[in-house]
Specification:
Layout lengths: L7 H7 E4 L5 E3 L7 E2 L2 E2 L1 H9 L9 H27 L5 H22 L11 H17 L5 H19 L7 H18 L8 H21 L5 H15 L14 H25 L5 H6 L3 H13 L6 H17 L8
Antiparallel strand pairs: 1-2, 3-4
């Protein structure tokens, strides 16, 4: 848990742009941050606490924002599992409402703040990756519990990101780490007490690969809110054919409400924060840091959804976390 400095929320509202070069422009049109034409001292102090002497976000601010994104990711697992396991809504309907509500919220915010919200050809890969992730994620959580689903998802995410970062060559520590993580994942899927079903596990792994691609796309930089808005718009369109899959579950008001909360809060806002962090994180860290999500999701599932904590889940999770941790020990390349 991290402490949010006083006035942090108002500060983020008053900040109009934080560019890669670190230029900050206060929006004097927002009364919450401005008094008699002057920025509130508390707001100014909160903003400046986030920015180092070089004009860029300080490391603790990047870490705090990344932690906030991880909590949002875990929230997605918990909300989706609660809605689908409770037969409150079908998976296709949940995914579509989640994306559509997030798209509406992001487009409104983007247009109100002068950001570009109209999708471009360059946004197609991100929109497609987000649609594939959402489809696999939604259908998998009909039968997976929150902890196991998050574990499979982010193991696949981390493997995708790590493998994509190895263009300069694979070293033995990375091979050892990937082998250890793969051992944990295989153990989780082996037959026996506490195993997970292969079909939903495969869907979740596909979702993880797609989310890994979305993460790598986000590392290219750019304005995070506008990029996320355009991706959500495209993803909601790409996911429309999934509605043709018949569902025996009727959409209830509770299920629709959960889908909207998941779309607007833990997805739209959470992904915007994540896209803000990504260009500022090392490439392997951008994958491995997400493995904190299964622990948060599993704990939330136990506390809020009454899901069991099995020994297999705990030990397999430790193996996967240890394996990805080993990949971070990669020594610098010799030149």
């Amino acid at each position: 848990m991290f402490l949010v400095p006083p006035g942090f929320t108002a500060a983020l509202t008053g900040v109009r742009r934080l560019s890669g070069a670190g230029v900050v422009e206060a929006d004097h049109q927002r009364g919450a941050c401005v008094h008699d034409g002057q920025i509130d001292p508390g707001v100014r102090a909160s903003v400046m606490a986030l920015i180092g002497p070089d004009g860029r976000l300080v490391p603790w601010a990047i870490g705090a924002l990344a932690m906030l994104a991880i909590v949002a990711f875990a929230g997605n697992s918990l909300l989706t599992r609660a809605a689908l396991a409770g037969d409150l809504i079908g998976p296709a309907e949940f995914g579509q409402i989640r994306l559509a509500s997030g798209a509406v919220a992001l487009v409104i915010f983007a247009l109100a703040s002068g950001r570009a919200a109209l999708p471009r050809r360059a946004d197609l890969p991100g929109g497609l990756a987000l649609a594939i992730y959402t489809a696999g994620f939604s259908f998998a959580y009909v039968r997976l519990d929150a902890g196991s689903g998050a574990l499979i998802l982010f193991a696949a995410v981390s493997a995708t990101v790590v493998l994509a970062s190895l263009r300069s060559g694979i070293q033995w520590v990375e091979l050892a780490g990937l082998a250890l993580a793969l051992t944990g994942l295989v153990w989780l899927l082996l037959p026996g007490a506490g195993r997970v079903d292969l079909l939903p596990a495969g869907l979740m792994a596909a979702a993880g690969i797609a989310w890994g691609g979305y993460t790598l796309i986000g590392r290219q930089g750019g304005e995070p809110v506008g990029r996320t808005a355009r991706s959500f718009v495209l993803a909601s369109l790409f996911l429309l054919p999934a509605l043709l899959i018949g569902s025996t579950t009727a959409s209830t008001p509770a299920g629709i409400t959960i889908a909207i909360v998941c779309g607007v809060v833990t997805s739209a806002a959470g992904y915007s924060v994540w896209y803000l962090c990504l260009p500022r994180l090392p490439v392997i860290a951008s994958g491995s840091v997400q493995l904190a999500t299964p622990a948060v999701a599993a704990l939330g599932g136990i506390v809020f959804l009454g899901e069991p904590m099995t020994g297999r889940l705990v030990l397999a999770g430790l193996l996967i976390l240890a394996g990805v941790g080993v990949t971070l020990l990669r020594p610098p390349s010799k030149k």
